């Protein structure tokens, strides 16, 4: 993985890959992807090939396809949506004299790629020897602009290392790039084989534009390119455009010591409304802006944006450089996923790959927005704005399901439900609570009254209405929510899922509170006192099952009475279980795919005593297999809270390394944004112990053994807070003036700017490490210092062991 | 429905239809279908057109198609199976002078069709006036032979009513008849568009044969025809055969008063093993036998078979002629479905239509075999032989699901699971208990030791093993069966479904008992004392949930705590509910599609007290919507047992008229064999109160108000018993010697041949009629005498009412 001449190289501010391994391209195309939340470009080589899975995505741009059912039923969605690989503008092909530059041929003497978290660019240096022995060096850098939303740019430099060489550059816009379909459904494959229908093509000078639309979903997109070429005088160029291809060709003789440098500016846009001429004009205008800013200007803007970001959101881990890199890598990608989405969804994979069909799920609100709320609050607001924009679809879906309020989709690109398996889709109504929770969290953290009035109240009201119609008061008065699915995907259609009921309880109360705060808005949505008090009543009598015999909360009614999964009989290669066991068997047994009750203990920690948390955590540790990437981060948070600091550290590492170590063997399809965000959560809510209920910001920080220091920065109500955690003390400091009351282990501390406030950390309890299912314990991770200390300790103990062993022989 | 000049006509031994209504052809093609359980022919007109849905079926002959899943999962079946419309031999086209005989043109002066339950033939008489005014009379009769399994035959007679006429007869074998597909899946449609691939065609003299195979399932079929023609001397014939068509053409001048009579003999066969020449030989041999027997011989054999059948299985209802007709109609079709299946399944629709893709379900064992066990025991044995033949597939399926024993398919033609929606398919493991129950019932009723040793023990052992691996002992020791689906399809994946647990309990005990009886066989299947005592222990501690607060059994854990369905808000046109409400909503509420707990009270009546039965019946009456045809018959049984005799009669009528009155609006796709059989059950187990546990045959007969007499015959351990029920007494008589101990209201009665034994019937309790969901009460049905009596009573009461009303004015 970090062999000296091949693979990732550790660096605090960069993701660096050394060496060329064509079989690893798919993985690194995801990890090296660039995105601003609107445009996404996978980290393919500029020459176009070799490549794993090319991909250029525009957030929200999808094609529809029929969803097939061998046995259909009422309310099943008829259409699926799949993110489309749009016109590829990354391609710059090169002919070196008469040989195509293709690293599969000849020899690649050096090859290095760097994703720079501070410059926000992907750089690459390759020295290539052609089959006939010509040597050239290529240096490229590219960016998807955070400051100019519709713009991406590539700088391509190539120089001969020996003799004079003729270079022919072909810079393309290529639509309908052939990709092998991953689906087994021929109709889906057909829909995605060549998803773009050409509508317009133009070219002139160094500029070209292509406009396409999708056949079924009726969306239109445009891509345009312009170029600046820095080359010797012999330069000859032509430009041409046909339906699915626009190409600038530049031929030039470059002397030894000379260099050909091409800057390619790209503009992208899409719309469901605008005409082809309007869309063409839109991308050409974006392009003109970019050209005017210029390559250096774009670089400078990008750097400035990221300087601001890291100043208020950086996370530092002193004592584990590789984890430091992974955490910044994760936060950088979370930023890329959300920065400029602007009322579009943040998909589960961001814009880094076609996984999950490009759909957004509940984990965006639960994990990604949890990080963004404190790292880049405006992007969390924007993502909730997307949910607000889809309210009409969610209300219609609720009506279709016989419910009031809004039923948000389990998976979607445009807001319409695309889940074809309702027990793990539509029945997972907790997505509504996740949205409400994200609204409440954002309001707690931002005090953004305008957002509350414009979006927040309506989202809270409509989600609360859903719960009231979904549950019912039984004869005893208790409010039950039957037949729904919680976060754990190895259970489904259960009664009184504790997570769901607690989140619904909070949702109902938050909605009532918001209506009390904004009575005029509430009235506009028809909310009256009868309705809010019905919400409060339901919340107050919400069923929260508890198993008195075992002294733990069952995940849902009856759960703790189910058969145990036989982990001893489950071979290691039978994970993830859902690929090797039927749902029916998983559902009826005590096996947990991902944190469910444990997530409830994080997000609704107020509903559990410390003793319950400790017992529940142990109980579910023994039954949770983490076949989902949405588990380790939450387990880290609760492990840290309960006092299992080393275990928490292992889980933090699992969440953070999910994609760099390809722990789920599917990074080729894109990064796991939820897991990357949950690594941030594991640091801030786990080791920082950060909790934010109402206006209160609480910390209970604890350093895992072996680290020297953890520090993190976060935004909270216009303030920027720096928290530094050391073994025995924590320091809180505001970075930009003012003062803020926070809680440190339950005590109020007023934090100002200067040197900050330092407070002692009480010692953690010493607890036996809980056990996980056989073979499913997280990989033990130890910071460098601890590894060193332990090695020394083991040497000592080894001596003792040997002595003991000698005794019987004496 | 029984208008004088159009529609069904009441007759005790016939289904008779008068008049021509082209829009009704689809309905009557199903009700007039002929079958012997091996060959099925829908009741299309001989001329081929007009037609609704032509269909000729061979039991077990199917085509495969891929089952599509938008979201697949482990263990989902990949291939579906669909019954194929095979080569159509029913067609005899006629040219009358120069006009095709097509009843859509010209005028049909008279048209009558008769399905004769005693002759086992379908007769038809049509007088047709051609567009140019030529008048002809057609008389046809056809049969699918009960005695010659591979044979069908048609007698076609046509006579001119005015002048001499030239007739041209074209008698066809037609393969790949075009039918509109009903599926939404293009791949299924393609697979079934022209399912037969031609392999061989021959013709000579009056004989022809076609051999085809299916493209995917690799099954081969052959059809052959031969003819006898009785015609004037001018007859000219030709015969020819091409890939998908063989045709005998006969042209003849028939003088006024003369007649052209064609007898068409048909032979059918299929095989997954035999070659085309072997299969051709097989059907030609069958044909030679039929020709040698001759038309009159076939008629005589058919009549003889049916004489025997009715002598031991007839059901008589004195006082309700239409119901009498419907009951014989139903029993005749149940006979047709099962008579000569011989180790093939009995599909849900028999061989009367393409509904349910031609699949067999659990209702065959639960309802159809319940009737056949006592009406034609050998056919029940044969149908269980089919299950036995599929044991290897069921064992492999159990392994795939991580279970021991055998997991029989929810729906199948060849024994492999074809259900594409596991919560209502694979999870409905009670199919195994239904098979075990049918085995036990057949053994109780037949004492067939050979069957027990050859099939019974193995079926019981493998189904018992499934239950033991599917359930588990929880910490308290109780044996739970979690996450399965009971009969009610508006619930799914529940814990401790009472029906399932009780049937599993019986299955476990029956298996242990059978192993004790046949220790050598048990040992051959590896059963030892440890295993049988594990079965008995699990059965003894089986969880049977009971709601103490309400004093009723919940259908499954938690059921009685679920929200009530709002029947008041459910419009009448929103039934069946599953077409208008999502599964998730149905599953989590107290709404019942079909008898579930009530079916448990029938099949496991020993597990409930009389008081529990009465309370449970009332409770579930109020929540059962009968969107399934598999409900009314069972509700009739329990209504009768509890004492609601009028309600029981209403339900009996609903079960019996399901297809004649097209109550589910889908009779075009075939008859509901389960419902037709359950009408028999409603009479015998309902009003007869017949129960058969172990060797004991019990009766508690009660006559519904308004009938004069119910009588039924049944086979029991080589005896043929006649039971006659009158208002105050019942008479039991053996029809063929010997003597038999039965129970009459709990008292042993020894029945011999002569005049029988007569015993008094205690008066029924007088109970308030339970209520059903709004609008879902069964149609009230009153026997003729009762209608008459009531009308008289109402006149009296009306007088009284008027008097009372007058009083205030006085």
UniProtKB/TrEMBL annotation, chains A, B:
Keyword Hydrolase assigned: yes
Domain Glycoside hydrolase family 65 central catalytic: 328-680
Domain Glycoside hydrolase family 65 C-terminal residue range list: 690-751
Keyword NAD: no
Compositionally biased region (Basic and acidic residues): 779-810
GO molecular function, one term: hydrolase activity
Pfam families according to UniProt: Glyco_hydro_65C (PF03633), Glyco_hydro_65m (PF03632), Glyco_hydro_65N (PF03636)
Keyword terms of this UniProt record: Glycosidase, Hydrolase
Region spans: Disordered: 756-810
Domain Glycoside hydrolase family 65 N-terminal: 18-271
Start-end of Pro residues biased regions: 760-771
SUPFAM superfamilies named in the record: Galactose mutarotase-like, Six-hairpin glycosidases
Similarity-based family: Belongs to the glycosyl hydrolase 65 family.
Record-given protein name: Glycoside hydrolase family 65 protein
Organism: Haloechinothrix salitolerans
